[in-house]
Design a protein that fits this description.
By secondary structure, the protein is an alpha+beta fold. It has one domain (3-186): 3-Layer(aba) Sandwich (Glutaredoxin), CATH 3.40.30.10. Helix content is 32%, strand content 20%. The chain has helices at residues 3-15, 65-80, 82-87, 100-110, 123-128, 167-178, 198-201, and strands at 33-36, 41-43, 53-57, 91-96, 115-118, 132-135, 138-141, 145-149, 155-160. Strands 2-1-5-4-3-8-9 form a seven-stranded mixed sheet. A two-stranded antiparallel sheet has the order 6-7. The protein starts with a helix and ends in a 9-residue tail after the last helix.
Length: 210
């Protein structure tokens, strides 16, 4: 794909309408406390004032079939671009409706270089209006949703079912556009740059809210 066509594709992703959600671009990210995969209790707003953050709501740890494959591909793409995102000052967070043990088991298989948030009680997805798919007592995000949140805590972009091969480019383009810079991508990765841990992100534990 040429750079021009790739740029056009990214703009289409950023400008696409996402019907049915309870939030829209320009809204504040809700205050919801979730347990992070390194054991800390963090709020979706923990990054406000610190850095832009990409929240990927997806299914995979307890999903199956197409849902699991789609979610795993997105998680792998974020992992592959973790250093690009970190070098641009952007945090990446995955959010699933699985419990902490299920996430821990999944992380043990894949060793993702970013945090996962457990939304086992579905407090975040319900506040955001993200559709769910139920299988018995198990709930998963029906289709992946990518939320880009600026340092001011406002939603800069909402992307439904982002293409795995472009997910990092989409995040960086949204951040650059929100900051008034050219959204055409992107800076090369800086060797040795690692994403922040929950300990580095949170100044103090944040209490959960529903």
């Amino acid at each position: 794909m040429t750079a021009e066509r790739q740029g056009a594709s990214l703009q289409e992703e950023l400008d696409a309408d996402v019907p049915g959600l309870a939030v829209k671009v320009g809204d504040p990210i809700p205050s919801v406390g979730l347990r992070a995969s390194d054991g800390y209790l963090l709020n979706l707003r923990s990054f406000v004032g610190k850095q832009p953050v990409a929240f990927l709501f997806f299914a995979a740890p307890t999903a199956s079939g197409t849902q699991a494959r789609r979610g795993t591909r997105l998680a792998e793409s974020l992992a592959g671009g973790a250093r690009r995102l970190a070098s641009a000052g952007v945090a990446a967070i995955g959010v699933t409706c699985d419990n902490e043990r299920q996430q821990t088991d999944w992380i043990g298989e894949h060793r993702w270089p970013y945090l996962l948030f457990s939304d086992e009680r579905r407090s975040a997805v319900e506040r955001l209006g993200i559709p769910l798919a139920a299988s018995g007592r198990n709930y998963n995000v029906a289709r992946p949703v990518l939320l880009i949140v600026g340092r001011d805590g406002l939603l800069d972009a909402i992307i439904l079912d982002p293409a795995p091969e472009y997910v990092v480019d989409i995040v960086l383009a949204a951040v650059r556009r929100a900051e008034g810079r050219d959204p055409d991508l992107a800076e090369p990765a800086s060797p040795g740059t690692e994403p922040p841990s929950a300990r580095e992100t949170a100044e103090q534990p944040t209490s959960a809210s529903s």
